[in-house]
Amino acid sequence: MKIVFATNNHNKLKEVQALMPPTIQIVSLTDIGCTEDIPETSSTIEGNAKQKAMYIKEHYGYDCFADDTGLEVTALDGAPGIYSARYAGEAKDANANMNKLLTELKEKENRHAQFKTVIALTLNGELNLFTGICSGNITEDKKGTGGFGYDPIFLPKGYTKTFAELSLSEKNKIGHRGKAVQQLIKHVIRSI
Q1: Residue 191's pLDDT is what?
Q2: Cα(129)–Cα(65) distance, rounded to whole angstroms?
Q3: Cβ atoms of 96 and 150 closer than 8 Å
């Protein structure tokens, strides 16, 4: 079965492809000729995921899934949340985003945070949502060279290494996106 993954983020694509069984082939936005920026104007992670999935279904006619992910920091009342990718500005610069977050947490004792991924799937005329959450803490310094986004400063609960220090397979086992994708896979396999 082929299904479109509505993302232009090559890191997300690589992460999700590593989880897919051979029976499910992911097709990228480039593969279907979608080059425009898909609107993300919702005030929630769930809403943005739905908006992207529905956009592809309505404009291109393909069943697809889309994800939206946010880093929610307790001491910052859930920020950056839906603004995670653009936290330090429209450039979507991961280092600038991490530096801003580390600066804002400098005087804070509570460094608890969670990554939340919501995947919206349009399939067989239905829209389904799958949510994955990974709790942890924000480190004081960047550690590791793997992963992407906030991975060098996110220490998952029960671990001594940041996401950026873990292998892709280790991160996929415990990570927010991996948890949501596993739910997606089970649903899609039941639907085939």
Answers
A1: 86
A2: 9
A3: no
Two structure tokens written together for 56? 């592809």
- Amino acid at position 103, single letter: T
At 4, phi and psi to the nearest 5? Answer: -80, 135
Number of domain units in the chain: 1
Q: Is 16 exposed, middle or buried (0-12, 13-18, 19+ CB in 10 A)?
A: buried
Q: Which residues are catalytic?
A: 68
| Closest by Cα among 142, 180, 181 to 164 | 142
Cβ(137)–Cβ(111) below 8 Å: yes
Residue type, 126: E
As a whole number of angstroms, the distance between CA 121 and CA 188 comes to: 9
Distance CA 87, CA 149 (A): 11
> Residues 6 or more apart from 169 whose CB is under 8 A from it?
18
Structural domain for 55, as ranges: 2-191
Read off the pLDDT of residues 113-168 as tens digits, 9 standing for 90 and up. 999 999 999 999 999 999 999 999 999 999 999 999 999 999 999 999 999 999 99
The two structure tokens encoding residue 11:
């890191």
What is the SS3 assignment for 76? helix
Domain of 29, CATH number, reads: 3.90.950.10
Contact predicate 140/102, CB 8 Å: yes
CB 73 within 8 A of CB 110: no
